[in-house]
Amino acid sequence: MGIGGNHFIHAARRNIDLTVIMLDNHIYGMTGGQVAPTTPMHATTQTSPHGNPEPPINACDVAISCGASYVSRWTTAHPKQMRKAIKKAINHKGFSFLHILSQCPTQAGRYIYDTTKPEELLNQLKRLSVTKQKAQKLSKEELAGRTVVGNLHESEDRPELCESIYALMQARKG
Amino acid sequence: MKKIIVDEEYCKGCHLCISQCKKAVLAVSCIRNARGYLVPQANEPENCTGCLQCEMICPDMAIAVEDSADEK
Ligand SMILES: Cc1ncc(C[n+]2csc(CCOP(=O)(O)OP(=O)(O)O)c2C)c(N)n1
Ligand code: SF4
Ligand code: SF4
Ligand SMILES: [Mg+2]
């Protein structure tokens, strides 16, 4: 969403037959715990010691608004649902996006969540997630701080880029 | 009975597998791998239902559940 953001937007817009799986641990983990585009607002990280002044990006909303034709979100605490979604995303013709929230005990645990216990972080992911169906019945206040999971968007309306190009080539050949 | 196989060298000792097993089949062992992590072991394999939660949750694909020879 940060460095790859531009490519992401245009791949979704073109609805090219790609599957993007974004593992989101709320932080730049590998490089030592810097603030990331999905870091929650006010969270402390190595580069936001006084709290993150920026609101996070909602990658699924970005994908849907740009034209992705399959979008779903799960967490590592939902391995079965995730597996189904991965299968669906790969088989889907068009740009598919899977947002997977995951634990990062080493960096996000230490800086953001005050625990480096993998089990606690995993349980927290489960506790804070709410299915799309349940979320529809909750108010904005009740949904604050929670993550909506499930199959968020699926559409067959938009043509896939390569198919459009092949159709153009066929038409030109006459 | 199911056979639970831990690839000790791939294991990073996070113990997520132990936390996800509803049947308390797994427990921390006294075995340290080359990187110094305490690996899990199947203390009560007879209670294993083969639900595969441990296998699916392992971030490093270090644990697998198989049908043992007598079940095949
Ligand atoms: C184009 C580019 N810029 C910078 C880097 C340096 N870099 C390596 S890992 C990393 C952070 C990755 O964070 P994230 O994508 O959240 O993955 P995580 O380590 O948290 O799993 C960066 C900035 C890179 N590999 N490529
Ligand atoms: S989940 Fe995998 S890496 Fe973690 S303790 Fe179990 S076998 Fe080892
Ligand atoms: S397969 Fe299920 S019951 Fe068996 S050890 Fe793994 S989590 Fe426990
Ligand atoms: Mg990250």
What this model shows, in words?
The complex is a heterodimer of chains A (174) and B (72). Chain A has one domain (5-173): Rossmann fold. Chain A is an alpha/beta fold. Helix content of chain A is 40%, strand content 17%. Chain A has helices at 5-14, 59-66, 79-91, 105-111, 118-127, 132-135, 140-143, 161-173; strands spanning 19-24, 70-75, 96-101, 129-131, 147-154. Chain A has a 5-stranded mixed sheet, sandwiched between helices. Chain A contains 8 helices and 5 strands. Chain B has a single domain (2-71), classed as Alpha-Beta Plaits (2-Layer Sandwich). Chain B has helices at residues 16-20, 53-57, and strands at 2-6, 26-32, 38-42, 63-67. In chain B, the strands form 2 sheets. Chain B has a two-stranded antiparallel sheet. In chain B, strands 2-3 form a two-stranded antiparallel sheet. In chain B, strand 2 (26-32) and strand 3 form a beta hairpin. The radius of gyration of chain B is 11 Å and the shape is globular. Chain A binds chain B through residues 76, 79-80, 83, 105, 118-119, 122-123, and chain B through 14-16, 19, 53, 56-57, 59. Bound molecules: thiamine diphosphate, iron/sulfur cluster (SF4) (2 copies) and magnesium ion. One iron/sulfur cluster is lined by residues 6, 11-17, 39-40, 58, 60, 62-63 of chain B. Thiamine diphosphate (TPP) binds next to loops of chain A.
Summarize the structure.
The complex is a heterodimer of chains A (174) and B (72). With 174 residues, chain A is of the alpha/beta class. Chain A contains eight helices and five strands.
Structural topology:
The complex is a heterodimer of chains A (about 170) and B (about 70).
Chain A: H1 5-14, E1 19-24, H2 59-66, E2 70-75, H3 79-91, E3 96-101, H4 105-111, H5 118-127, E4 129-131, H6 132-135, H7 140-143, E5 147-154, H8 161-173
Parallel strand pairs in A: 1-3, 2-3, 4-5
Antiparallel strand pairs in A: 2-5
Chain B: E1 2-6, H1 16-20, E2 26-32, E3 38-42, H2 53-57, E4 63-67
Antiparallel strand pairs in B: 1-4, 2-3
